[in-house]
Amino acid sequence: RPPNLYSFTDVDKELAPNLRKYVLEQQNEALKRHGVFRVAISGGSLPKTLAKALLALPSGSEEDKVEFDKWEIFYADERCVPLTHEDSNHKLVQEELLNKIPKEMPQPKVFTVDEQYLDNAQEMADDYEKKLVSVFAARDSVKLPLFDLILLGCGPDGHTCSLFPDHPLLRETDAWVLSISDSPKPPPKRITLSLPVVLHGSKIGFVATGGGKKDILKKIFETEEGSELPCGLVNKGAGEKVSWFCDSAATEGVSFP
Ligand code: 6PG
Fold this sequence. Notes:
The chain is of the alpha/beta class. The protein has helices spanning 11-34, 46-54, 89-96, 121-136, 195-200, 214-222, 224-227, 230-238, 248-251, and strands spanning 4-8, 37-41, 71-75, 77-79, 109-110, 149-152, 177-180, 190-193, 204-208, 242-247. Helices cover 35% and strands 17% of the residues. Bound molecules: 6-phosphogluconic acid. Residues 42-46, 77, 89, 153-155, 159-161, 185 line the site of 6-phosphogluconic acid (6PG).
C-alpha cells in the first residue's frame, strides 16, 4: 500500500493540529505497548513545526496529552559539532522545542551524541549505535532498533536524515548508525540512522512545507527516478507506515498515487 499523504492549506491552523493528533496517536499506542515513547527527530525545519504541534494547548481530552516524561528522544541525524554549535541538531531541537516545554512539566529523556568523538565521525556513529543497542536490547537479540515514530524532513535533492541521493551509505545493511564525511549539505561530517533502521520504524512521518518543496515532491511521487531518491526509497520500502504532512504550497501541482 502507498504512503499516506496529507496536504493542508495552513501550517499553523491545520497542519500543526493534525501532526499533533498523529504524533499523540503513536505516543498513546507506544505507551500501551511498552510504557515509553521512542521517537527519532531530524533537523531542518521539522523541530519548529513539531513545536507548533506539541506545545499547543491540550484540548482536555484523554488522548490529547503530550506525556513528555515518557518520551525518549533520539536524533535521526546529527552533525559532528559541539552540542552548543549553531549547526547542531540538538541545539536546534533544544531551542525550538525542549526549552519551551513548561518547566513545571516533566521533561523528556534526550539521547545526544557524545562530544568526545567530534574529530572522528565513525567513532561518534559507533558510540551512538551503542546507545541505541543499550536502549533497544542487545544487538544479538534485536536485528534492528524499533522506533515508535521517526520524524523526517525532505531535502530539495530528495535526501532525508543524512542519507543523500546515490550515496554508498544507502546500501548499508548492517550498521544502525552511519557516519558521513562528505555530506553535500554542510556541515560535511555527520552521523545518521541507516535506511534499514528508518524502514523498520513503526511509523515514519515526513513534514514538508513551503513552495521550495514543490519540485522535489513532484519528482518523488511522479517519477521513477524520484522513487530511487532517499525519500522515495522510504516510501517504497515502508509504504503505508509512512505519512507525509505537507502544506498546499509544497504539493501544488503534484499528483499523488
Ligand atoms: C539535517 C536534517 C535534514 C533535513 C532536510 C530537510 O540535519 O540536515 O535532518 O535531513 O531534515 O534537509 O530540511 P528542511 O526541512 O529544512 O527543508
